[in-house]
């Protein structure tokens, strides 16, 4: 890669010069971002990588003028050489509107649900750039076509609620292009998307950047993804940029231990998997699911009557005692519905669920039966912030869970048991006195796991149990779960959209798509020698070294002419992704 | 029109019919269950002879089984025969018709006040900084704590007695004079609801101001006024509308207090009077009228919401 550095002539599109972000909270000022210095040259893509709370999003929001009330900045932010602090409010708004395009994590929340896509696409053109509504609509349709949307005219009349997350994210991207911005601020734009959709969106962005000479500040917690789509990567920790690396050589250049930890977390560990297999012999199945089927009645699109939607269709698998089975699939694959049927939260329309010889096909009737089943199967959910009662201390939460299954324990025994559970999830006993608010996401998820273990279950169902956590925390929790499985012999049923998570923890895997099992088998066989086309697509979509996102939808063949001239920058086309 | 909106409309009409039927049964039975014999009310103070009693019972079908009495009454209501007042001995229609106008005018006046000052102060509280927010919060706390009749007394004392700006009594002649006469009653009626709607509006607007889609609009440089109109207020309006439907309908019932306090001969004062004198047919018809108004206004609010937000009609996603 030739040096995409800022020459003496070309000013950086975006320059953060010793940027500090401070927040006044309860009368005291805390500095959340320290001395953040980043330059993004024209056409360059810089990744800003770090875990939640590292200050990466705050930095981007400072650029876009979206800091919450009570926040202030120090240092300087310059866009094409202009210091934002020196501009009048109206000039600042205009500059941001015309030079910056910002795309966010959840497109669904960031689009007004009551307005049509057409309204959204044309609004800035009409109200900021003063375009005629007709011309704006024509341009909107062109832009939608440019991001690979097949029927733009129809889409312009639809509302956000009618579209998928991937489509909406493309609409967001297309809308930012309306003003021909020089830089795209992308804040975790693919985090809420499935891997295949993530690949699509990243491919769209790669094309746009090639054709439009668009610079990008790409904020993500996923170092592998940043490395694959950016020229340079800045790693942030505790509000500071700890190192900036060239993406192509970041794996060898990284010197900070934190960066190396992020890399280890993001990369598949090759020696794992096989180790997990070794412990499981031909044990009896604790859970056998056969020919499961679930149909939901959904209100029809046209307003009258109902449509039938088959969420789960003929699903079958076995979970052996002490083993770990992963069910992977994208949103809408039916994996969560399957897990909910197993746990009795949903009733199957057909098929059987057998747990240790008992028929669990229908949800438990009566408290006694529910309690009996709860001793066998426990569930851990995705978001520990929501699945724990914020008014109870950790000790109270655990004591309650123990009390359900072992009524009549004496106080001292109860306390011993709570301490044993905290020990089992490697948490300090002192945390028993704390409330959820005072704990980190990783600690909370450990508490949730401890609560599930209070019942001493045979099966632990993990519904996206690590998806909401930072990568390094994910690895910790997965290691913990693996340890618990080996120590207690509990069988794990892991529902996840993330193949790498499943690879780290499970010995067998079921791949689902649109309610159907596409492929299942031993983890190494399925993930290393996939038979199904869909499994291959899923694997190809995972960002890794040398990964190039591909567009699977047909795109237009010619790029739109833009106001900014792309001709002068042809040298760099090859640098990006080929 | 959007098919989902049409479907919503159809559902509304269905539930309207059902609600009216059920409430008419409840109203009919409730009045029958109250103590006292309608015959004595009808005889009006004189001691009736057994012959008179029998004649009265026969004329008003009082010896029929309850369900037949109901059918008789409901059939009459449906065909426009609302029955005869026990007290005034005239058709209920003739009692009600001349009073509807003044009550509707009073309520409409109050609605305008509520919409302007309730929604307005809510928007001010949400958008004009801390001090404005505190001030509106304090004012609305007081407004919510004051019962309508206390407001009426205060208004009469200040504006009619001390300042002498407004009349104390009566409804006035001609439209402008009527408005003049109804000003104090309308204010006394509106205060509580202004406070209530102000709180609702403030909450709805604040939640939209901090929503992510408004953030997007700001990044895109959309002018502030336009963001407020098209993204903040529009999205807050379904919440405000939902509350407004019930509020306006409630005004018809509460108007009785204001009408009594200011001596206005509207539906409300007729209802209070009829209830006190056990004039069963009048109470039944006005009660039923209140139910109709309540259901219709709520249905209008629901359809308006469906037009603004067709997705609100759709059930939550499954799977």
TrEMBL record, chain A:
GO biological process: peptide transport; transmembrane transport
Presence of keyword Transcription regulation: no
ABC transporter domain span: 14-263, 287-539
InterPro entries found in the cross-reference section: AAA+_ATPase, ABC_transp_ATP-bind, ABC_transporter-like_ATP-bd, ABC_transporter-like_CS, Oligopep_ABC_C, P-loop_NTPase
SMART domains: AAA
Keywords noted in UniProt: ATP-binding, Nucleotide-binding, Transport
GO MF term list: ATP binding; ATP hydrolysis activity
PROSITE patterns in UniProt: ABC_TRANSPORTER_1 (PS00211), ABC_TRANSPORTER_2 (PS50893)
Cited Pfam families: ABC_tran, oligo_HPY
Keyword Nucleotide-binding belongs to the record: yes
Family: Belongs to the ABC transporter superfamily.
The protein, known as: Nickel ABC transporter ATP-binding protein NikE
From TrEMBL, chain B:
Membrane topology reported for the UniProt record: Multi-pass membrane protein
A Pfam short name: BPD_transp_1_N
Single GO BP term: transmembrane transport
Compartments (UniProt record): Cell membrane
Residue ranges crossing the lipid bilayer per the database entry: 12-33, 100-124, 136-159, 179-197, 240-262, 282-308
Gene3D superfamilies associated with the record: MetI-like
Protein family (similarity comment): Belongs to the binding-protein-dependent transport system permease family.
Full protein name: ABC transporter permease subunit
């Amino acid at each position: 890669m030739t040096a995409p550095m800022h020459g003496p002539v070309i000013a950086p599109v975006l320059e953060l010069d010793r940027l500090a972000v401070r927040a006044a909270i309860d009368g005291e000022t805390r500095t959340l971002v320290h001395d953040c210095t980043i330059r993004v040259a024209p056409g360059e893509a810089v990744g800003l990588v770090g875990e939640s709370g590292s200050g990466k999003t705050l930095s981007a929001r400072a650029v876009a003028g979206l800091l919450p009330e009570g926040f202030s900045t120090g240092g300087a932010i310059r866009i094409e050489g202009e210091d934002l602090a020196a501009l009048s409010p109206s000039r600042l708004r205009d500059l941001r509107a015309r030079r910056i395009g910002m795309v966010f994590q959840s497109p669904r929340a960031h689009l007004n649900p009551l307005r049509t896509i057409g309204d959204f696409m044309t609004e800035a053109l009409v109200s900021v750039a003063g375009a005629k509504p007709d011309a704006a609509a024509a341009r909107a349709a062109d832009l939608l076509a440019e991001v690979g949307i097949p029927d733009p005219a129809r889409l312009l009349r639809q509302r956000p609620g009618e579209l998928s997350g991937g489509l909406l994210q493309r609409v967001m991207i297309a809308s930012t292009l309306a003003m021909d911005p020089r830089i795209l601020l992308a804040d975790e734009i693919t985090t809420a998307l499935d891997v295949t959709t993530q690949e699509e969106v990243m491919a769209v962005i790669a094309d746009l950047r090639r054709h439009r000479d668009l610079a990008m500040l790409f904020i993500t917690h996923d170092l592998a993804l940043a490395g694959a789509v950016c020229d340079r990567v800045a790693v942030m920790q505790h509000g500071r940029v700890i190192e900036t690396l060239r993406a192509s050589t970041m794996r060898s250049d990284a010197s900070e231990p934190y960066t190396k930890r992020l890399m280890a977390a993001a990369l598949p560990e090759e020696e794992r998997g096989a180790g997990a297999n070794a412990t499981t012999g031909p044990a009896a199945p604790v859970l056998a699911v056969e020919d499961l089927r679930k149909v939901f009645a959904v209100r029809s699109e046209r307003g009258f009557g109902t449509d039938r939607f088959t969420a789960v269709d003929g699903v079958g698998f076995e979970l052996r005692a002490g083993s770990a089975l992963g069910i992977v699939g994208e949103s809408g694959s039916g994996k969560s519905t399957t897990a909910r049927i197993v746990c009795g939260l949903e009733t199957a329309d057909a098929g059987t669920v057998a747990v240790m010889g008992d028929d669990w096909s229908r949800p438990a009737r009566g408290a006694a039966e529910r309690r009996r089943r709860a001793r066998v199967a426990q569930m851990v959910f995705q978001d520990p912030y929501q699945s724990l009662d914020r008014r109870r201390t950790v000790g109270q939460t655990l004591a309650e869970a123990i009390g359900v299954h072992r009524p009549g324990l004496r106080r001292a025994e109860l306390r011993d048991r709570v301490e044993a559970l905290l020990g089992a999830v490697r948490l300090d006993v002192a945390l028993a006195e704390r409330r959820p608010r005072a704990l980190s996401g990783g600690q909370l998820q450990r508490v949730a796991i401890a609560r599930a273990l209070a019942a001493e279950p045979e099966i632990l169902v993990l519904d996206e149990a690590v998806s909401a956590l930072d990568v390094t925390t994910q690895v910790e929790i997965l290691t913990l779960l693996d340890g618990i499985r080996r120590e207690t012999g509990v069988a794990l049923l892991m529902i996840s959209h993330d193949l790498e998570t499943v690879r780290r923890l499970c010995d067998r895997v079921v791949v689902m798509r649109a309610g159907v099992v596409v492929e299942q088998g031993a983890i190494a066989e399925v993930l290393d020698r996939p038979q199904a086309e869909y499994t291959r697509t899923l694997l190809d979509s995972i960002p890794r070294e040398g990964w190039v996102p591909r567009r699977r939808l047909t795109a237009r063949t010619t790029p739109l002419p833009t106001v900014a001239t792309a001709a002068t920058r042809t040298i760099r086309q090859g640098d990006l992704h080929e | 029109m959007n098919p989902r909106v049409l479907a919503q409309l159809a559902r509304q009409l269905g539930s309207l019919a059902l609600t009216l039927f059920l409430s008419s049964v409840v109203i009919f039975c409730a009045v029958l269950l109250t103590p006292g014999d309608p015959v004595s009310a009808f005889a009006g103070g004189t001691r009736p002879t057994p012959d008179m009693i029998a004649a009265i019972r026969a004329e008003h079908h009082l010896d029929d089984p309850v369900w037949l009495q109901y059918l008789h009454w409901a059939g009459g209501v449906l065909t426009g025969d609302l029955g005869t007042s026990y007290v005034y001995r005239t058709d209920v229609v003739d009692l009600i018709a001349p009073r509807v106008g003044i009550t509707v005018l009073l309520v409409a006046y109050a609605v305008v006040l509520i919409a302007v000052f309730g929604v307005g102060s809510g928007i001010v509280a949400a958008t004009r900084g801390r001090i404005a927010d505190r001030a509106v919060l304090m004012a609305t706390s007081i407004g919510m704590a004051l019962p309508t009749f206390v407001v009426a007394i205060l208004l009469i004392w200040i504006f009619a007695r001390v300042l002498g700006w407004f009349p104390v009594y009566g409804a006035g002649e001609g439209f402008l004079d009527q408005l003049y006469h109804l000003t104090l009653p309308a204010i006394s009626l509106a205060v509580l609801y202004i406070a209530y709607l102000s709180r609702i509006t403030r909450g709805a607007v604040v939640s939209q101001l901090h929503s992510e889609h408004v953030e997007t609009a700001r990044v895109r440089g959309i002018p502030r006024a336009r963001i407020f109109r098209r993204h903040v207020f529009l999205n807050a309006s379904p919440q405000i509308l939902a509350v407004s439907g019930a509020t306006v309908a409630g005004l018809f019932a509460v108007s009785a207090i204001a009408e009594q306090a200011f001596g206005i001969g509207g539906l409300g004062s007729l209802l209070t009077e009829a209830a006190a004198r056990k004039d069963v047919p009048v109470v039944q018809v006005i009660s039923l009228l209140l139910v109709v108004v309540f259901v219709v206004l709520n249905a209008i609010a629901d359809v308006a919401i469906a037009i603004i937000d067709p997705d609100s009609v759709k059930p939550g996603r499954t799977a």
